[in-house]
Design a protein that fits this description.
alpha+beta; four-stranded antiparallel β-sheet; two-stranded parallel ribbon; 14 helices
Length: 402
């Protein structure tokens, strides 16, 4: 009897209330959910397909203000002197013994190891060129002169020179040279590595991988393959630089991103399930969040990679250095945006669902509780969304990508 009275009062009070757009939308979507659900899926499809083209890039180029004189100057310097001059690549060598950095035998072995590495990297990069049909890579050559360190200068081994500089008469100059490439304790030495490739590009990343593989193969140097016992342990070698740091950071981040997304959605389900004492509310929230994320990231690819709003003056991110010319997002963009989007989506969702629960507890049926919640929160959520759109949308007109 109480339930019957409650349902009658729902109908009577609904009829007495003034017309509401949001209440009408709620009732219409409930009656035509078989149409609404496929419609929402259809709306998402044009945004999901571009996600297959998502590409990311490292480096500073995508972070610079577009069209700014400072950016143009930076690009000019980069074009004339090469990226490796602005963002140098360095091999840090940790020999097994502190005195090895001035040992003639160790210096001679490490010099020949550098020459071997140059030949090895050349072979690997030319193989990549043949596979990709890239004529420039097929003619790629890394030379011994690309290494500059205590053991090698201009492609020439310096072990004899270093040993001569250990003479008391020339020790002052020898110490100056050694200290320029080694730490104070002489437990490590550095070798600068030049390259004509952009280390932030896809091809440059293949070069980094090839150098690392060559280093791993050279940590124990065999002077003569005929006598495997005649070996010199060069020690650990590490390739460092901004390109390597960003490459590793991006790779580790995107490898962990699926786990982060999964953990985030599980936490959302656990919190909402506990708060609303329901198994359906968390599932609906996750589905809505997933739809929003797919549409948002798809739109990001369309705008910042495909340039669909370029006619309005909203240009895509700066062209990546890989030929043929195309555009790519900065690698941190989707990682940062994911957390922001989940927070914004849940904020409005919890606000709406709290109103649904309040009306349900007040005696409304589940369907009418949703309609009344839309009546009371629809305008507020819509206005809040418009404010957020204006706040973040203003960034579209900015020349600074981040």
């Amino acid at each position: 009897a109480a339930g019957s009275a409650g349902s009658h009062s729902d109908a009577g009070s609904a009829a007495a209330r003034p017309w509401s757009l949001w209440a009408s939308v709620g009732r219409l979507s409930q009656r035509g959910w078989l149409v609404v659900v496929p419609l929402l899926v259809g709306v998402a499809v044009p945004f999901v397909i571009p996600l297959l083209d998502f590409e990311y890039i490292e480096g500073l180029q995508t972070l610079l203000p577009r069209g700014d004189p400072l950016t143009e100057t930076f690009l000019e310097v980069q074009d004339h002197f090469g990226v490796s001059q602005i963002f140098p690549n360095t091999i840090v060598v940790l020999p097994p013994n502190p005195g090895d950095v001035t040992s003639r035998g160790w210096l001679n072995a490490s010099c020949h190891a550098m020459k071997f590495m140059a030949a090895n990297v050349t072979e690997v990069m030319r193989a990549h060129g043949r596979e990709a049909g890239d004529a420039s890579l097929q003619n790629f050559a890394m030379k011994a002169s690309d290494f500059s360190g205590l053991m090698i200068q201009g492609g020439i081994c310096t072990s004899l020179l270093i040993s001569l500089l250990e003479n008391p008469l020339a020790k002052k100059y020898g110490d100056f040279l050694v200290n320029g490439f080694s730490n104070e304790d002489r437990t490590a030495t550095k070798v600068r590595v030049k390259t004509t490739l952009d280390p932030f590009s896809t091809v440059g990343q293949k070069w980094i991988a090839a150098v690392r593989d060559a280093m791993a193969a050279s940590e124990v140097w065999v002077s003569d393959p005929s006598f495997p016992g005649d070996t010199t342990v060069l020690g650990e070698m590490h390739l460092t630089g901004m390109a390597q740091e960003q490459m590793d950071g991006a790779a580790d981040t995107f490898a962990s991103l699926p786990r982060v997304i999964g953990a985030t959605l599980l936490i959302v389900m656990a919190v909402l399930g506990s708060a609303f004492r329901s198994a359906v509310v968390p599932l609906r929230a996750v589905l809505c969040l997933s739809w929003m994320l797919l549409v948002t990231f798809g739109l990001g690819v369309l705008v910042y990679q495909h340039g669909v709003l370029q006619s309005l003056g909203i240009r895509p991110f700066l062209t990546s250095p890989d030929p043929p010319a195309h555009h790519a997002m900065y690698w941190m963009t989707p990682c940062i945006a994911f957390s922001i989007l989940v927070g914004l989506g849940l904020d409005y969702d919890v606000f709406f669902m709290e109103s649904v629960v309040e009306h349900f507890d007040a005696g409304y049926s589940s369907r009418e509780a949703v309609v009344e919640a839309l009546r009371h929160t629809g305008t507020i959520i819509c206005v809040a969304g418009v404010i957020m759109f204006l706040a973040f949308g203003a960034l579209l007109a900015s020349t600074t990508p981040v």
